[in-house]
Fold this protein.
Amino acid sequence: MALLGVVFASILLLVLLVAYFRLNTFIAFLIVCLFMGLALNVVREPAQRMSIADITQSIQTGIGKTLGSLVIIIVFGSMLGKLVAESGAAQKIANGLMQVFGRKYVQWSLMLTGFIVGIPLFYNIGFVLMVPLIFTVAARTKLPAVYLGIPMLASLSVTHGYLPPHPSPTALVGAFHANMGITLLYGLLVAIPAIVLAGPVFSRFLKKYTQEPAQLFTTVALPDDQLPGMATSIVAALLPVLLLAATSLLKLKAAPDSVAFNIASWLGDPVIVMLLAVLNGAYVLGIRRGWPIKKVMGTMEDAIRDVSVIILIIGGSGALTQMLLDSKVSDVIKEGLGSMHMNPLILAWTIAALIRVSVGSATVAGLTAAGIVAPLVVGTTVHPSLMVLATGAGSLMFSHVNDGGFWMFKEYFNLSVKDTFKTWSIMETIVSVVGLIGCLILNLFI
């Protein structure tokens, strides 16, 4: 209990430093990590304590691990987003959406776009790729960016949390020995109500959040005759989706270790996908339309400057996550909950949710919960695919200050910490709870 008390005190300190004292978020993360490491030493036995060198090494490791996997994707995604916005491609796509769905149903069009894009696309890529579209539609419709963004981001969150082929759900399929195709089918049934309730339904209460979004991808509207073609705009914006979808299908058809399989694996790597998408965007949206190379490079450099603060914040959240892992708090949670007797679906969801709230990482929460629950459900009648979905839903529970996604949403949409709790954190909670309810309902019929 003392360890958990230190964790809760550390999270409270972070909230106070950022929200009340207005301290730089990255510096606040470092202070909280140091506080947590030293405070844990006070409540632990001498043999379990971390030296100051271990604490700082944990911080460095957390920042490195988090940014090592995200920084290239975030930067390339920002470059592509800036090109899509500056060239007028996002404006062209927004025009098409408005014509097809109309202003009244534009939320639903964005939600559907997010869901389709989110199935093959990693969450962080989808976030930075689709945010410019949200901002553009918000500017043209005069509707709040948060009101329009929540439905699309709810879709991205659901696909990331419990739909294969995303990394965590795919690993959970193996942990629970489930069938991936059946898991995807059941996942779609659970995902639809979760996205609708957390998206268009919940966002009806968010029209009061009228803050102007961050100036990352905002542009002045261009005359229609200066916009790129619709096909060019869509292909440039969604090339990462098309590449990932095509390579995923090719890997399913090709024999393992064959030339086709290896090519698909290489081209399907997120870094390669985003590099190709940026190069394509620079050419078809800039150079081919008469932009000088200096203007194209200047646009991409602006994107890097715009996103640098967000990169630091995400790195700081990674440091906090690593400190939580190195402090063995997840082991304490395992010991406390592993012996509980309840419905396996509820148990998996609860453990994943508690780890998610404590650690911040949905992937860590899902895989850690699976390690606890998988041995406990052997011989039960619960369908393994539902165990995958319940665990994945729990891993999305109440995203807050130790989750990089929380800070990305806050900074991109220019919200206070308090308002981010009221919008983003509640949306993630709805997605998580509705996912569990969906699993329990399906369990009655399977």
About this structure: The chain has 19 helices and no strands. The radius of gyration is 22 Å. The chain has a mean pLDDT of 86.
